[in-house]
Amino acid sequence: MSISTLASKDIFTSDLDQLDQSFTYSQLIKEIVLELDYDAKAKADLGNYCRRRQTSDGGGTVSSLIDKFEQDYECHSPIWWYTCGSFLFGMLNQALRTQDTEALVKMGFVIRDIHRKIKELHDNATPRQLTVYRGQSMSADEFTKIRNNKDGLISFNNFLSTSIDRDVAYMFAESTLQNPQMMLLLFQIEIEPMVSRIPFAELKGDDCVFGSENEVLFSMHTIFRIREVTQIKEGFWNVELKLTSDNDRDLAHLTEQLRKEIKGGMASYRLGHLLIKMGKFKQAEEVLLKLINSVPNLMASYRLGHSLVKMGKFKQAEEVLLKLANSIPNRGRTYISSTTHQLGAINRENGNFQAALMFYYIALTTGLNSIPIDFRSIAITCNDIGLIHRELGNYLRALAYYQKALEYLEDPAINSDRLELATAYNNVGQVFQSMGAHSTALGFFRRTLAIEKEILPPNHPAFATVHNNIGTVHSLMGNHSLALQSYRETCRIEGRSLPTDHGTLVVTYNNLGEAHRSNGDYEVALQYYQKAIDIGERSLPENHPSIAAAYCNKAIVYFMKQDHWTAKKFFEKAREILEQTVPPDSPDLAIVYVHIGQVHVVNTDYFAALQFFRKALRIQKSCLLPNDLNLARTYACMAEAFYLLGNHLSAVKYIRLAIDIARQENTPAAKQLLEQYLHRFFSY
């Protein structure tokens, strides 16, 4: 059973009227699934899907039930099929619990039919006050969340089956206990019929399989308030709930904002768009491909290309978008510009930066030749050209394109969408951050945050992005406590607004790990890095740079713990990923080269160390500002290697270069670095 409760009382929140983010996404999925069109093949498609899902154990019995469902579905009420103990009950509840969108789409017509039937019965019933009961088992952790949140909200994200007969619910709870570590719960639910926004119905006649149960069935996303939690006996608890019209206001605002962001077009298109936002790119690909094959849909093709890019399927994405571009008539220059713009994104993600720039320039030229010119789209393209140059280390060119984008977006006659302006400020901040101008970067990130606070609900994912960037700047400046504070805020927002396996969490956990590492909390840091790796390997394309960053950071911790063999293993893993995915002049690759060189130093292989330091230095000189602290670190590492080789003249040369840079930067990080260099070389 999928249950959303308020967040447990921790360091982030004590607000009792908070439901978790799964409520938002499952509600939006439900709304779209209820609108989807289902053809005559839907029943057979569901049957075939269910057969593929079955294991060999009991497969024959389940297969016969599926056959019966296909043959006799119209002979019974949809509620009858749900409550009769067929394969549908378990599969549907599991899909709702795990947000298995593939299964939900396949079973969409059943969900729709059950919901409509409950609503029909609810609308035709005479309102009366009821007390109903539900018995079930629950893990100790889940129960603790409920017990500690008296007067808070709880939502059941699936269809909720209850009984008017307390004894039936009591016996059912006892029958579910298979693990002594589980808790038994008897939910006692008070219903005031005029309160609920969600329909519920007493089941009678053809809708009721087991008439003696006096069953009451609620549709999905019914919200209750927790009144009392009392112990019946050892391991068995009574939980009093009251049906309520209350909602989590922040979550309702976020849900409405996301609803606006995916609005427009057919239900299948909106579902594909929502799945992209959830980071479920494979499912988005399947939904949009089906839509494109059934109905020519320009925006679906565009979204499909976007989803394929995120999955790392660059060749397929390029084919989809080239086909789209070729199918658009000459008068459709807006779509040509949009499509070539997406082709630029494909090549950027694939590391083909020159090809990416070519497509972006085509998009820019096409857009400038359109009548009328869409200056807002021109600004977005300039932003993305700037992004390419930033990734190439061409920071001044990147800044020029970002500033051109700002010219358009700051003009209210051209752009009324202040969120686009906020994004532009964020991009400018990132390029200043890359250039080492941390105070300037922080100013732009704060401007981004100010605009977003005016417009967005407080738990929108955009806030997480800017808090993450602010945390990174604080970390680079050596303000580790402020960095940790920002990263925790990022984590709190993402926990309220993103699915638990979203790829963005990889970056967040990486940064949290780095903040704890900087504070000397190595074991906590390793836990966060492993979380980042686990989510990345589940959610991101193979060999994604964010996974490499987690391996690199994990290696740094082992290096600091003097476990040099393990450190080298993880550094090499990071190197292997980055050399396959980023350009050869990537600053991230330079950082890994420096770390591998340091491992060679402690292993007394100084010539090998210098090879890696020189490779790093070549990259950093081409893309970093002359006073960047990363350059200072590389110079210091080279100085140490030369000193240990007995080449004292070269050692003095490079340590002076490192100290000169550290003295120019008036930040805690620079001062700490300067002290480290002086201490190290006076100790030789």
From TrEMBL:
Organism for this UniProt entry: Didymodactylos carnosus
Q: Which PROSITE patterns match?
A: TPR (PS50005), TPR_REGION (PS50293), TR_MART (PS51996)
- Tell me the keywords, alphabetical order: Repeat, TPR repeat
Which segment of the chain is annotated as a signal peptide?
A: none
Report the protein name in the record: NAD(P)(+)--arginine ADP-ribosyltransferase
Query: Quick check: keyword Repeat in the entry?
Result: yes
Q: Where are the TPR repeats?
A: 379-412, 422-455, 506-539, 590-623
Superkingdom assignment: Eukaryota
User: Which InterPro entries does its entry note?
Assistant: TPR-like_helical_dom_sf, TPR_rpt
Q: Does the keyword Repeat apply?
A: yes
